[in-house]
């Protein structure tokens, strides 16, 4: 593990919004190991949620101005602000129940919320998908540090969470009238 840095921010500070926002984003994106090692493990959901909201709003504003698609803007906001809470719950379940990691839902949410810094750049055409893979890496590093588990277990928890979303999406698609995915050619 990398040593923590005195200058590395440990939590988003809304009172010093711009400075704190950019320091957190820089820390997460450029030094994720050091950032997550020093990240506050408690203190409530408010500060990480405000950081997440700022990232999602910035991303949505840029995409909205570019594409001018109201349904895309609405879904981006809805999914960007709601799904991190669900994702944190699923990750927390897998880490604590499957891998016997010790920690709290808040820790899982904080990791997920701060990884949203990727949204500040994922609007760039052709880079978005690569940056989403980087977000997965950030979450793996963060969970490994926050819950003191091996990165491989953290990665498995993230992959299982992706499978949960894929299964839920397929089931929802089927329930709403879409065809069920075929398993045979």
Element layout with pairings:
Elements: H1 17-30, H2 32-38, H3 46-67, H4 70-98, H5 105-114, H6 128-147, H7 151-175
What's a quick, concise take on this entry?
By secondary structure, the protein is an all-alpha fold.
**Would you identify the regions where 5 or more consecutive residues have pLDDT less than 50?**
none
The major β-sheet equals: none
The coarse silhouette is globular
Q: What's the mean pLDDT score?
A: 90
Strand content: under 5%
How would you explain this protein's 3D organization?
- The mean pLDDT is 90.
- It is built from 7 helices and no strands.
- Helix 1 crosses helix 2.
- It is mostly helical.
- The protein is globular.
What labels describe this entry?
single chain; 185 residues; mainly alpha; globular
């Amino acid at each position: 593990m990398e040593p923590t840095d005195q200058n590395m921010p440990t939590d988003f500070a809304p009172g010093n919004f711009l400075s704190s926002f950019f320091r957190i984003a820089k820390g997460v994106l450029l030094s994720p190991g050091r950032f997550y090692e020093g990240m506050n493990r408690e203190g409530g959901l408010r500060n990480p949620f405000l950081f997440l909201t700022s990232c999602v709003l910035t991303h949505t504003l840029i995409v909205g101005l570019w594409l001018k698609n109201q349904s895309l803007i609405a879904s981006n906001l809805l999914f960007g602000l709601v799904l991190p809470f669900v994702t944190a719950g699923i990750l927390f379940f897998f880490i604590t129940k499957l891998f016997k990691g010790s920690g709290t839902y808040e820790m899982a949410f904080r990791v997920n919320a701060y990884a949203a810094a990727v949204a500040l750049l994922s609007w760039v055409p052709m880079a978005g998908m690569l940056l989403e893979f980087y977000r997965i890496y950030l979450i793996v590093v963060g969970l490994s540090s926050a819950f003191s588990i091996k990165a491989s277990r953290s990665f498995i928890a993230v992959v299982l969470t992706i499978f949960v979303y894929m299964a839920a999406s397929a089931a929802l698609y089927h329930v709403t009238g879409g065809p069920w995915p075929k398993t045979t050619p």
